[in-house]
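User: Quick sanity check before I run a bigger batch. Here is a single chain. Can you write out its predicted 3D structure?
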Amino acid sequence: MDAVIIAAGYGSRLAALSPSKPLTPVCGVPLIEIGIRQAAAAGVTRVVVVTGHKAEAVEGFLAELAQRVTVEIEAVRVDDWSKPNGYSVMAGAARCAGEYLLMMADHMFDSAILAALRSVGGETRDVTLAIDRHTQSPLIDPDDATWVKLDAKGFITAIGKTIPAWDAVDCGAFLATPRLAEAIAAAIDASKSGSLSDGMQWLADRGRAATCDIGTAWWMDVDDPRAHTLAEELAPRYLTAAFAST
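Assistant: Done. Predicted structure follows.
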């Protein structure tokens, strides 16, 4: 299976630590390498990385990393990295045939989360989002989290940073089909900004956005210096695939 990793944004809240968020090291390993190694451990054989800000540096690192890992790595540069992240999703999805895992470069995942996502596709869903119901976890930044409201069957009814009520938090990992990119394009045509959440809401409104509860599996969003400090402490305990060769 393919994976798409979104690595195009500026990452302003980590800029004090690193000029490139995907290349920000956690215990000496860049975030983008951690994501690729965890995806490989979950059975991914090809990774498409969407670049933008500091693209030359990120692409240069990926070319070197490709010599050290067992997965194929392809970089695709988004036309305008300042646009919402849905544009990056569309650029990456265009390089994939069929289902693919979708990941954010600044999120870290236990490979069990990614492996679980690989197995949950079906005719009733066009996208499946990994969710965490432990919404009070100290690893979650409530000011930056994307929240999810669910129906009785576990399908998404609302998703966003400012929805008034929620049941879970978006973990930043998805099993996507080609319909996700189509939904983002449809949302843009309907005058939405073009964010990934816009596409997710478009599918949710049609009953096509499912979820995968991660239970107690470990993940975190490394989005600011506080989170980075926590990541340095915790990641080697949980992400054995990423740190085994370091």
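The longest helix spans residues 225-238.

User: Great, the batch can go ahead then.
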